[in-house]
Amino acid sequence: MTLDEKIGQLRCLLGWEMYEKTGNKISHSSKFEELIKTQHIGMFWAVYRADPWTKKTLINGLNPYSAAGAGNAIQRYAMEKTRLGIPIFMAEEAPHGHMAIGATVFPTGIGQASTWNTDLLQEMGAVISKEIRVQGGHISYGPVIDISRDPRWSRVEESFGEDYVLSAQLATAIVKGNGGGRLQEPNSTITTLKHFIAYGIPEGGHNGNSAIVGKRELQEVFLPPFEDAIDAGALSVMTAYNSIDGVPCTSNKELLTDILHHDWNFKGFTISDLISIDGLMGNHHVAGSLEDAAALAINAGVDVDLGGNAFAELEKAVKNKKVNIATIDTAVYRVLKLKFDMGLFENPYVDPVLAKEVVRNPGHIALARRVAQESVVLLKNKNGILPLNKNLKLAIIGPNADNPYNQLGDYTAPQERSDIKTVLDGIKSKLSDSQIEYVKGCSIRDTLHAEIGKAVEAAKRSDIAVVVVGGSSARDFKTDYLETGAAIASTQTLSDMESGEGFDRATLDLLGKQLDLLKAVKSTGKPVVVIYIQGRPLNMNWADEHADALLTAWYPGQEGGSAIADILFGDYNPAGRLPISVPRHEGQIPVYYNKKNPRGHNYVEMSADPLYSFGYGLSYTRFEYKDIKTVQKDKYSFEVSFTLKNTGSLSGDEVAQLYLRDEVASVVQPVKQLKRFKRVHLAPNEEKIVSFTLTAHDLSIINDKFERVVESGLFTIMIGASSTDIKLTIQIEVE
């Protein structure tokens, strides 16, 4: 290979202009042909993506059948018209479903985490991977395993929340569903883990800002989910936009080479986040030119440049002796090896008919509903008002009651309206039209066009008011975007968008007239059920005090409305649990559960505790915990068992959680740390023995010499229904 050809394999360019669509005819574009001829590009990102940023719509974008045709056209030119015949890698966004028209849309990451169900997420990962592969894609971007400790941050919705153990186990499940790195399997994708690292704790909650974190905490909290997911088979890691202790993550050799490849024996490739190598010059100011930025990144261990501007300067950097050709060869090997492992040289094409049959098939739709059902968290249920009787007359009110895109979340392509089930749609499937009156009431942010009076009158005519509020990360054509695709908050638009990449918040209050709407409906004296559809924990203080029932559904995906209706009417017993604490006030942030000792004390104005704690969630039934026992298996292995019983009258799931506290350690430890969890289904009066095994790794710490060790002493084991609802405790002693 020539140097130009090698560098081409290390550049991943924006892909949605790589095809041309004329009626039913799909072909590669002239722009694609020019890029292949002149720059030998080996990888494209988001060929199938559609959204306002790409300006691809339901009309000019690709459906599954035409997407497969576009992928085949791109591959055919690369295989047949280039000197080396190297197939193209196509990378696709997939944090909660393939970001393509017609694909199945699952709940966003924070909702997935609320299921606390690894088996379910492994099944979801397999569906997402299959939908990508049958359309001609190869790389799935996601899961996002940034530990989120600041709900002001715009991308909380993509993450699995505040805990590294929960994040690690859920990420591992999705990676296994994606194929676990067994690329020879036809539906396996290369999983790209995002974002390396500590991206979810930006200073001030500003997306991409520097992260203030120590080396020990990196090893204890932020690195483990990535290491576990890599052990499960993830073969790609994306760098983060932020810096740590003055070093940008995109040029951090300790992270990208020493830890990933030397310590973890990572066999895949790393890729920059979009134009983050350019950002070494333009944002971080650690490089004076794109050439210097490219040299910094590849010498640190970045193999592929997403955006491709900086690595276009690599030939110059080699000639100027800033980059060794062996460094280029290593990166090229990592990319080409995976193309060979996936069998793309022998089988680069896909079947459009199969793509049409597989993508968003009835089984995938049913799975999206299951994930949505399991993700909904019941936070309050005063006097058992839920589940609702199906003979009631309901007022359905609120900006998120019937807005399909507001429930899908960021990184979602346009979808046919009939493919999305809103809360109103779900309730209509349960009740007759005469039992339902719908009034929007207000928008998320717009304060000029409200109909609160109409909402009040509808509530008066009802037996119960169901009010759906919250936020939105639905992009529209009025919004401006950065080169990275992040949206720009603006005072010139009345978009609902207040969450999603780039939409960081200073407060967590409901925006617009939503609180006014809630208060007005409550003033009618009718019972009020409040549902938050949201991307981050928003202020729930008023609803906690005044609502008769309160749920959060996060962004529940295309089947979210049906899942919520199932829960409202008791056709599904909710068992979602919070993967992130809900603060009472922004002044408490950070308010995550596993802070290090000492725990702290209350503020002058309020409690230091969150409004709702990590792991919290209610059910329509009750569970009893009893008979905790421990058995030491070997020096550092303990089996913990207890009996869990459903003492209520309905079948339901309980999420049993095991927390651990090291009573005396050589370095400061958390007040408690989740180590194990299990979602258990029980019929009325049924009981099961639940057991967990603690290993040496669970008991270990990073000591003052930065060694992972198990120290002797007492450990307190806490079994409970949340981080603050501990039912059973027992101690073990390690010699």
Query: What is the overall pLDDT average?
Result: 96
Shape: globular
Strand order of the largest sheet: 11-8-7-6-5-4-1-12
Helix content: 25-40%
> What characterizes the major β-sheet?
8 strands, parallel
Cα end-to-end separation: 59 Å
Q: What is the CA-atom radius of gyration, in angstroms?
A: 26 Å
Structural class: alpha/beta
Count of discrete alpha- or pi-helical segments spanning 4 or more residues: 21
Q: Give me the count of strands.
A: 29
List the uncertain runs: none
Portion in beta strands: 15-25%
3D structure, described in words:
By secondary structure, this protein is an alpha/beta fold. It is 27% helix and 21% strand. The chain has 21 helices and 29 strands. An 8-stranded parallel beta sheet has the order 11-8-7-6-5-4-1-12. Strands 13-20-19-16-14-15 form a 6-stranded mixed beta sheet. The radius of gyration is 26 Å and the shape is globular. The chain starts with a helix and ends with a strand.
Summary keywords:
735 residues, alpha/beta, six-stranded mixed β-sheet, 21 helices, globular
Q: Strands, helices and their partners?
A:
Elements lengths: L2 H7 L1 E4 L4 E4 L2 E4 L1 H10 L3 E3 L18 H18 L7 E5 L15 H6 L3 H17 L4 E6 L19 H14 L12 E7 L18 H8 L1 H8 L4 E4 L3 E2 L2 E2 L4 H11 L5 E3 L7 H4 L7 H11 L4 E2 L7 H6 L5 H17 L10 H7 L3 H14 L1 E5 L12 E4 L25 H6 L7 E4 L12 H9 L3 E7 L9 E2 L5 E2 L25 H9 L5 E6 L7 H6 L2 E4 L7 H9 L54 E12 L2 E10 L5 E11 L10 E10 L4 E8 L1 H4 L1 E2 L5 E2 L3 E8 L5 E9 L1
Parallel strand pairs: 1-4, 1-12, 4-5, 5-6, 6-7, 7-8, 8-11, 14-15, 14-16, 16-19, 19-20
Antiparallel strand pairs: 2-3, 9-10, 13-20, 17-18, 21-22, 22-25, 23-24, 23-28, 26-27, 28-29
Helix pairs in contact: 1-13, 3-14, 5-6, 5-15, 6-8, 15-20, 17-18
